[in-house]
């Protein structure tokens, strides 16, 4: 298991919440310590609040730009339409789902299940190659927490030492002002995020109605609006990194998804150990002569970590790959005149043997399964019909003999129009010969609606078998066949 990789023969520091001071390089690692409890809880299980220091560096800059792009997509998403349909809509109450403008109904559940399967296998392949790059760069929790709420907190309360000091200080007008301002803005942002989430569920038009209509008309909608806002406020103001370490299952799966070739945020222990504080005017060669590596035990990588871990202990479940430690360490390395990249994106084999990413048999297997499933999904999507019809014999009805000697059966027809346009639909009895009548005349399906109607099928006694006769009905629009329905016609036994 990669996440518990041992670093034989080297000395490591004990993992602990970020400390301001440098630590002695002579402490040997207490393996039972950081493996037996998480950095955000003490031995009694009480929460240890993390005060990550502000980060500066190229990765943080790139992540900031990328986050702005993601936030733009997230906030604009509900208003973007493709062929009149939203970009993404997960309307669970009405069981209607829209992905990239394509409407999916409960009848498309197999396609949906296949898409979910492809998604999960894609995640497995991606994680096996790139580790948890998703968590650090694109996960909405990390993006919102680190790029929105954390930045706001820094702007109001200052960097980590000022925040710690403010929290320890007795209540004063300045403290009350800062706390009220921070939590007020946090709640306002949470309200906004909650509303965006709601608009991905019910659509922005329905959300707008909730806002402008009298509250009594949308009690459930308002309850969700407030519930989501409180939930996000709780997550970003209090729960924070605990969502990644306690709730999200993805981090827990990484021990089975990662292997020695996966790219992760890794500390180059071969270069960094044996760590030791940098003495004044100490030269690089002198450090090497003294048996010391490049790590100057400054603890900056721990101080910036939003989950409070020490990446020098190896890959850990709590690491969300936010790259903050990479930036912090690069800054330190540049300052002391060592090459950057002591903490970098690398695989275990890359660090131990200088190997590049390898296409292992396990990865080949994942890719094969993923390709097969993706191809199947593509076939299912391209052959998906615009309408989905079912025909069942009307409950409790028997066959009837007409005055002219024909036999008739009554059916219930249910048709879903999956498109966003009106569809005229025609039903033809294809086998055996007979007549088919839609009650109420022609059938025109309103867009994105389910229509229920009755059908009367009449057969001549000569075309019928004893007991039940199989029927084949074609569903057409504009002369194009959309679907073939099969059912049974019940008649008298010989
Ligand atoms: S160890 Fe580094 S990459 Fe991982 S969460 Fe902490 S700061 Fe981010
Ligand atoms: S920031 Fe770099 S030099 Fe400083 S303790 Fe971490 S790994 Fe060592």
Distance separating the two termini: 71 Å
Q: Characterize the largest beta sheet: strand count, sense, and whether it forms a barrel.
A: 5 strands, antiparallel
Rg measurement, Å: 32 Å
Contiguous runs where pLDDT drops below 50 for at least 5 residues: 1-29
Annotation, overall tally of beta strands: 16
Shape: elongated
Total DSSP helices = 17
Per DSSP, what share of the residues sits in E-state strands of 2 or more residues? 15-25%
What is the percent of helical residues?
Answer: 40-55%
Helix/strand class: alpha+beta
> What ligands can be seen in this structure?
iron/sulfur cluster
Quick check: average pLDDT?
86
Brief digest:
This protein has 494 residues and is of the alpha+beta class. 42% of the residues lie in helices and 18% in strands. The relative contact order is 0.12.
Write the layout of secondary structure elements.
Blueprint: H1 31-36, H2 58-76, E1 81-82, E2 85-86, E3 88-91, E4 96-99, E5 102-104, H3 109-130, H4 133-137, H5 140-157, H6 160-168, H7 173-202, H8 204-212, H9 219-239, H10 242-247, H11 249-257, E6 264-267, H12 269-272, H13 284-289, H14 300-303, H15 324-336, E7 343-346, H16 348-353, H17 361-382, E8 387-393, E9 400-401, E10 407-417, E11 423-431, E12 434-438, E13 443-445, E14 450-459, E15 468-477, E16 480-490
Antiparallel strand pairs: 1-2, 3-4, 4-5, 6-7, 8-10, 9-10, 10-14, 11-13, 11-15, 12-14, 15-16
Helix pairs in contact: 2-5, 3-17, 5-7, 7-8, 7-9
The protein binds iron/sulfur cluster (SF4) (2 copies).
One iron/sulfur cluster binds at residues 265, 304-307, 309, 311, 319-325.
